[in-house]
């Protein structure tokens, strides 16, 4: 087998692996976001509970980290955030940030 | 080194793609079939999340009713603060947007060995996995004299629907100065704060419309959920209107006399103008008939997959299960249902598994503009669901914080029912 072909295949395999890694991460994000959806509408609609749609990954991550650090602003979000690892916070923030606003 | 050919490579890529598309493990079968019995909060949530997360699973939801009325927020309806229609949710979105096959029939029997469900119309459904979400039933002969006929005179209103409307009619037509007796059930029962929220909101209605009326709670227990928060609110909002008698004072309610609309305890008889009798509970009838409940009357399950400990291949979620530290609430049913749906999807399609996150969040009204909330997270520990973190509102909170919680509760209802029914 020629080296060029081998490297092309190797690249392909790396891509495959990283894609299935990304798919798993997206699945984890989706499963964690299912928890958010019990109180926050993921179509961007609703009132009374602040929307988490359209905030961006960094803001969502920082909000969850702040809720995890302190009970003072909201004990519900404190309890939720305390149950999440750093990796889970990153994963759910990335997933929710990708959800577009489409209120019904 | 093995030299890879293009064909082998595409075969590998194809296999990875198939996994990514969540194909069922079993070859030669187009789709894995999951049947969900019961279109309440637990059942509808399982169906929705299974259908949304795995296109390779065919989901059938069996529910005789055309729409579901929520028990949560029905106390607002009883207080005249919300129309009944706002509690009612149909199954159209689950069918149209998620492709769930909704069958409006009752399940007559389950045959776990044959993996079939018999419906009341004589037809049969086959399944690879079955989810049963039967809710609650009332224990037979829990209260002497409280039969079906008595329920039409002294409603339980513990399954939302005609019973809830009946209780509202009775409260509306009650004369000022009348006595409303609420019989509160023994543990465990559906929604621990709900009898006391009901007393609070009925008191707010009386205060507006029948200020001389009184409320008497005859409890089967000696203490109740969030008692400090309720008793603080009753003193602040409705001084002298609500009296709570624990079982140790009355000896407990022993019988009901529907003819005289009376509630009988060991030492006294209380004649009511309106009575709301909430009896002792157990898992829904189908769970009892199908051998899914143990001697406690409730259903033991695996706390990770929610598979029955008594019948392999059958999963249970919601009020019917032995939930360990998880209360019997709509929020818990919804949370368990998601964990159950992801576990079933992983089993049937080989999709990745992640640790489940189980929660209860609850908003409870003390008055129309005064609500408190709690939040608890749970984890499976040694085969049981244990609470890990728990926070609840405090008695000394400002009225502004409580007003905000009452507003948040409205938003929660909207988001939650969207999550369940689409």
From TrEMBL, chain A:
It holds the Pfam family Cytochrom_C. GO terms for molecular function: electron transfer activity; heme binding; iron ion binding. Its cofactor is heme c. Residues 24-100 form the Cytochrome c domain. Residues 1-23 form the signal peptide. Keywords: Electron transport, Heme, Iron, Metal-binding, Respiratory chain, Signal, Transport. This is Cytochrome c domain-containing protein.
Automatic annotation (TrEMBL), chain B:
Signal peptide: none annotated. Residues 33-149 form the FAD/NAD(P)-binding domain. Residues 164-279 form the Sulfide dehydrogenase [flavocytochrome c] flavoprotein chain central domain. InterPro entries: FAD/NAD-bd_sf (IPR036188), FAD/NAD-binding_dom (IPR023753), FAD/NAD-linked_Rdtase_dimer_sf (IPR016156), FCSD_central (IPR049386), FlavoCytC_S_DH_flav-bd (IPR015323), FlavoCytC_S_DH_flav-bd_sf (IPR037092), SQRD (IPR052541). The keyword Flavoprotein applies. The keyword Flavoprotein applies. Gene3D superfamilies: FAD/NAD(P)-binding domain, Flavocytochrome c sulphide dehydrogenase, flavin-binding domain. Its EC number is 1.8.2.3. GO terms for molecular function: flavin adenine dinucleotide binding; sulfide dehydrogenase activity. Residues 357-421 form the Flavocytochrome c sulphide dehydrogenase flavin-binding domain. Keywords: FAD, Flavoprotein, Oxidoreductase. Pfam families: FCSD-flav_bind, FCSD_central, Pyr_redox_2. SUPFAM superfamilies: FAD/NAD(P)-binding domain (SSF51905), FAD/NAD-linked reductases, dimerisation (C-terminal) domain (SSF55424). It comes from the Bacteria. It is an enzyme of class 1 (oxidoreductase). This is Sulfide dehydrogenase (Flavocytochrome c) flavoprotein chain. It comes from Mesorhizobium prunaredense. The gene is fccB.
């Amino acid at each position: 087998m020629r080296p060029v072909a081998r490297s092309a295949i190797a690249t392909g395999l790396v891509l495959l692996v990283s894609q299935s890694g990304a798919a798993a991460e997206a699945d984890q994000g989706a499963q964690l976001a299912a928890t958010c959806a019990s109180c926050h509408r993921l179509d961007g609609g609703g009132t009374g509970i602040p929307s988490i749609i359209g905030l961006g990954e960094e803001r969502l991550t920082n909000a969850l980290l702040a809720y995890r650090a302190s009970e003072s602003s909201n004990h519900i979000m404190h309890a939720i955030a305390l149950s999440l690892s750093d990796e889970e916070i990153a994963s759910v923030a990335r997933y929710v940030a990708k959800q577009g606003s489409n209120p019904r | 080194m093995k030299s890879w050919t293009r064909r082998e490579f595409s075969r590998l890529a194809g296999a990875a793609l198939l996994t990514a598309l969540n194909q069922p493990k079993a070859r030669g079968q187009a789709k894995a079939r999951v049947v969900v019995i019961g279109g309440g909060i637990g059942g509808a949530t399982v169906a929705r999340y299974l259908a949304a997360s795995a296109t390779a699973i065919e989901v059938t939801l069996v529910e005789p009713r055309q729409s579901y009325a929520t028990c949560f927020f029905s106390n607002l309806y009883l207080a005249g603060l919300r129309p009944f229609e706002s509690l009612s949710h149909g199954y159209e979105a689950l069918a149209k947007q998620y492709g769930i096959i909704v069958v409006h029939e009752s399940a007559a029997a389950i045959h776990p060995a044959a993996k079939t469900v018999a419906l009341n119309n004589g037809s049969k459904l086959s399944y690879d996995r079955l989810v049963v979400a039967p809710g609650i039933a009332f224990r037979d002969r829990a209260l002497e004299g409280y039969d079906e006929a008595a329920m039409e005179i002294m409603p339980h209103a513990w399954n939302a629907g005609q019973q809830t409307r009946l209780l509202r009619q009775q409260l509306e037509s009650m004369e000022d100065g009348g006595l409303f007796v609420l019989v509160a059930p023994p543990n465990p029962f559906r929604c621990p704060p709900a009898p006391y929220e009901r007393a609070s909101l009925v008191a707010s209605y009386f205060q507006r419309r029948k200020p001389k009326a009184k409320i008497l709670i005859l409890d089967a227990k000696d203490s109740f959920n969030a008692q400090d928060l309720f008793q603080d609110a009753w003193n602040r909002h409705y001084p002298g209107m609500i009296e709570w008698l624990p079982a140790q004072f009355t000896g407990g309610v022993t019988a009901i006399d529907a003819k005289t609309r009376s509630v009988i305890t060991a030492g006294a008889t209380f004649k009511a103008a309106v009575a709301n009798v909430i009896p002792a509970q157990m898992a829904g009838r189908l769970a009892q008939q199908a051998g899914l409940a143990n001697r406690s009357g409730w259903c033991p399950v695996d706390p990770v997959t929610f598979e029955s400990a008594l019948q392999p291949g059958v999963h249970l979620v919601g009020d019917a299960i032995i939930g360990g530290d998880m209360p019997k609430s709509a929020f818990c049913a919804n949370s368990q249902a998601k964990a159950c749906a992801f576990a079933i999807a992983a089993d049937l399609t080989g999709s990745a598994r992640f640790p489940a996150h189980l929660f209860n969040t609850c908003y409870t009204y003390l008055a129309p503009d005064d609500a408190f909330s709690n939040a608890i997270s749970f984890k499976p520990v040694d085969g049981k669901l244990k609470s890990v973190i728990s926070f609840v509102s405090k008695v000394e909170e400002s009225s502004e914080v409580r007003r905000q919680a009452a507003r948040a509760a409205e938003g929660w209802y909207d988001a939650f029912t969207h999550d369940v029914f689409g």
